[in-house]
Specification:
The structure holds 2 protein chains of 2 kinds. Helices cover about 25% and strands about 45% of the residues of chain A. By secondary structure, chain A is an alpha+beta fold. Chain A has a 6-stranded mixed beta sheet with strand order 2-1-6-5-4-3. The longest helix of chain A has 21 residues, at about 35-55. Chain A is globular, with a radius of gyration of 16 Å. Chain B has one domain: Nuclear Transport Factor 2, Chain: A (Roll), CATH 3.10.450. Chain B contains 5 helices and 6 strands. In chain B, a hairpin with a 5-residue loop joins strand 1 and strand 2 (about 80). The radius of gyration of chain B is 16 Å and the shape is globular. The model of chain B is unreliable at about 1-25 (pLDDT under 50). The chains are: A alpha+beta, B alpha+beta. Chains A and B meet through strand 3, strand 4, strand 5 and strand 6 of A and helix 2, strand 3, strand 4, strand 5 and strand 6 of B.
Chain lengths: ~160, ~170
């Protein structure tokens, strides 16, 4: 369960991010890749800030129907489940370091994208410090309010270390 | 639970990034997505994958792997490209055999007529050096259709799920 959080951010997946285009074919809009990446970068910055603050309001950075697949914890679907998992995680440990390092960011449309990358977190768990390094894939969507959110995330730790 | 096994399963592929064509310029109107056809394609791909995996058919597995596909499997370094995937398959089958494998999709999202995302759960029963074990895990995958009309793994992430006890 500890793992959870850390992972955090990650982001893509696959899925969510994507709105399936099932209807007819309206004219395609020009994709402003730079703007989308800026929005996604901003999301990452806010995510890290809220994680370090232990702010359970971090759930607002997920879409209403987001899915979270984190190693060590059951799949969480929807904001209520994600909020519960986040509350538990933040209650168990304090994030003292949160680093999210994208490897590749793909912007598919002006409101959907994905990313893979690595993360590093350091926590204070009842006086003991631990580090966690891992990989993630995330899906993003931009809401009607103009804010980018995580629609899907899968992440797992590659290694952990406890400092004595 | 070995990470290597997962790999096998996985199958998935591409990443995110890779498969996605950057749509930086204005594009012509995209064609309507035939979601039923795309879903049928990924289901078919999984069937072929499982058949090849349980047969230990490295060539068939490699043929389903995109040229630049990436796999992020817990316990293994990133696997980049078909050659690396084929080498991993060969190593895996040298020591063990996949007896049974199944996938249960959670979400399947047709992005276009040549790209689909899926996440879900898998099980894999493997015999390695006389010992048989079953892994339970989760995966996220991107599958894309190449110019030859074949659907291939573009990206996959997977890990054995520690929340499901082994029997």
């Amino acid at each position: 369960m500890r793992r959870i959080a850390m992972l955090t951010l990650a982001a893509v997946v696959v899925a969510a991010a994507a709105k399936a285009q099932t209807g007819g074919a309206p004219a395609a809009a020009t994709v402003d890749t730079a703007a989308a990446k800026a929005g996604i970068d901003s999301l990452r910055t806010r995510f890290i800030r809220m994680q370090l603050a232990g702010d359970t309001g971090i759930v607002s950075l997920y879409t209403d129907d987001a899915t979270v697949d984190l190693y060590g914890v059951p799949r969480a679907k929807g904001k209520a489940a994600i909020a519960a998992a986040t509350k538990m995680d933040f209650g168990m440990r304090k994030y003292t370091v949160s680093e999210i390092n994208p490897i590749a960011t793909t912007v598919r449309t002006n409101d959907a994208g994905s990313q893979i990358g690595t993360y590093h977190g350091m926590h204070d768990v009842k006086g003991k410090k631990d580090h966690e390094w891992g990989r993630y894939v995330v899906g993003f969507m931009k809401g009607s309010d103009g804010n980018w959110r995580v629609s899907y995330i899968m992440a797992f730790p590659d290694s952990t270390k406890v400092e004595k | 639970m070995s990470a290597r096994r997962l790999y096998s399963l996985l199958a998935l592929a591409a990443v995110i990034g890779a498969c996605a064509k950057k749509a930086e310029e204005t594009a012509a109107a995209p064609p309507a997505v035939d979601s039923a056809a795309v879903r049928a394609a990924i289901a078919d791909a999984w069937q072929r994958w499982i058949a090849a995996d349980t047969a230990g058919n490295v060539a068939a597995l490699a043929a389903m792997w995109g040229d630049s596909a990436r796999a992020d499997i817990r316990g293994m370094p990133p696997i980049m490209g078909r050659a690396a995937a084929q080498a991993a398959f060969q190593t895996m089958f040298k020591d063990g055999k996949v007896n049974a494998e199944s996938v249960t999709p959670d979400m399947t999202i047709p992005i276009s007529n040549d790209l689909v995302y899926q996440n879900g759960n898998y099980t894999e029963t493997v015999t390695t050096k006389g010992k048989t074990a079953t892994d339970y895990g989760r995966y996220a995958l991107a599958l894309h259709k190449d110019t030859d009309g074949q659907w291939r793994w573009a990206y996959v992430m997977a890990f054995a799920d520690s929340t499901v006890p082994k029997k």
